[in-house]
Amino acid sequence: MEQVPNEKKTYLIIGGGKLALHFSEYFSLLNIDFYRWERRSNQPLKQLLELTSKVLLAISDDSIDAVARTIKNKLVIHFSGVHSSVYSESAHPLFTFSSSLNSLDEYESISFITEEGKKSFSSLFPELKNKSYKIDSNKKILYHAWASMVGNFPSVLISEYAKVLKELSLPVEIADPYLKQVVQNSLYTSNALTGPISRGDKITIQKHLVTIDKDFKKVYESFVELIEKRKI
Q1: DSSP state, 37?
Q2: Helix 214-230 × helix 140-167 angle, to 10°
């Protein structure tokens, strides 16, 4: 049986997913003492709570309020980009976490979004030097909806593109400069579109539609329609 700790530490991370794993790694790289608890832990949560002053909820959005309201006399912080809670503070990391851990520089490059009228990021995490920005809590859903689209929709296309490159016996790394430039153009120029869609080359577009998979044909047609409609 695991021995119950008795050393006081500032942070307790609750969660068993990627976010909890990465925050644990970030704290470890900075030599920040913390406890971590998840459902399968042998250590009693109640006793860990007594040894900490800040509780970090790296859990699903639906569980945040249910858990936060049970924690008394602690500073509770959640990481949801869409949820606003009366029971806890929030700091959303604008980043995508994989199963692979990151370097300290990468963790420190992450920007965090907090809520106007609530505690600042520097007061929540005085040990961290990440950049942070505040938004109105009523705007969080819009902010997170777009972050979710940008973080997921291109990934589907890029993953499929990698498969096609492999089928053509081309190394996937040849796409690195191209995709990096696509992101740069999209972020920092007023008109990032290029190629036949931006020019309205209907013959080339039709040739594309004939050759691609039927599911992605729908995606292609939707983008063409969107671009024509909004004159992007």
Answers
A1: E
A2: 130
**What is the spatial order of strands in the sheet that 132-135 belongs to?**
92-93, 112-115, 132-135
Rounded CA-CA distance 36/20 in Å is: 8
CA–CA separation, 206 and 209 (whole Å): 5
pLDDT digits (tens, 9 = 90+) for 118-162: 999 999 999 999 999 999 999 999 999 999 999 999 999 999 999
The answer to whether the beta carbons of residues 9 and 53 sit under 8 Å apart is: no
Percent over 70 (pLDDT), the chain: 97
Indicate if the pLDDT at residue 82 is higher than 80. yes
**Rounded to whole angstroms, how far apart are CA atoms 68 and 79?**
12
The three-state (H, E, C) secondary structure of 95-157, written as one string: CCCCCCCCCHHHHHCCCEEEECCCCCHHHHCCCCCCCEEEECHHHHHHHHHHHHHHHHHHHHH
Count CA within 13 A, CB hemisphere, residue 18: 9
Give the chain's end-to-end CA distance (angstroms, integer): 61
Q: What is the pLDDT of residues 24-49, one digit of tens each?
A: 999 999 999 999 999 888 888 999 99
pTM for the model: 0.88
The burial of 223, by beta-carbon neighbours within 10 Å (0-12 exposed, 13-18 middle, 19 or more buried), is given as middle
Domains of the chain: 11-135 (3.40.50.720), 143-230 (1.10.1040.20)
Determine the Cα angle at 72 with ends 144 and 69, to 5°: 45
